[in-house]
Amino acid sequence: MPPGRPILLVEDNPDDEALTLRAFSKNRIENPVVVARDGVEAIDYLFGTGSHAGRDAALMPAVILLDLKLPRIDGLEVLRRIRADERTALLPVVVLTTSREVQDIREAYRLGANSYIRKPVDFERFIQAVGQMGVYWLSLNEAADATGNGY
Q: How far is the C-alpha of 148 from the C-alpha of 28, rounded, in Å?
């Protein structure tokens, strides 16, 4: 897939981060990847604050891959803040987590997640899942900006 807008990967586990980046590479997903290692860093990136002060906050990611179990601010709170702000309310958010807890799945969808994917333990299955996710969210999906228009 040709490079495009960045992917925001919100992941605190270095092994899962490395596996995800490797899966992107194997699937020829060439979008730049911005990694936020906790919820605060994700929020700072999206809104151009804190450690990302001065970033052009008008350039939003094509998709946010959001883990739930994060330090400082958990993934559900990050999702809540994304959906509460008109600048980010329509961004595609895919929860990518190991959690199988029914309450996490329900709450993620209640808060506006576009998709909930449990990370496969098997790396080959993970590569497949990332490839399918990339085709859909980066090639097929028609995204809308904060005004409801396409990007």
A: 29
93: number of CA atoms within 13 Å, CB side? 27
Q: Give me the tens of pLDDT residue by residue for the chain, a chain 151 residues long.
A: 446 789 999 999 999 999 899 989 988 888 999 999 999 999 999 999 999 998 988 889 999 999 999 999 999 999 999 999 999 999 999 999 988 899 999 999 999 999 999 887 788 888 888 888 888 888 888 877 654 444 4
- Report the predicted TM-score, pTM, of the whole model to 2 decimal places: 0.90
For strands 63-66 and 93-97, give the pairing: parallel
DSSP string, 16-75: HHHHHHHHHHHTT--S-EEEESSHHHHHHHHHT-GGGTTS-TTS--SEEEE-SS-SSS-H
Residues 6+ apart with CB under 8 A from 22: 127
Strand, coil or helix: 140:
helix
Residues 6+ apart with CB under 8 A from 18: none
SS3 123: helix
- Domains of the chain plus CATH, in order, are 7-138 (3.40.50.2300)
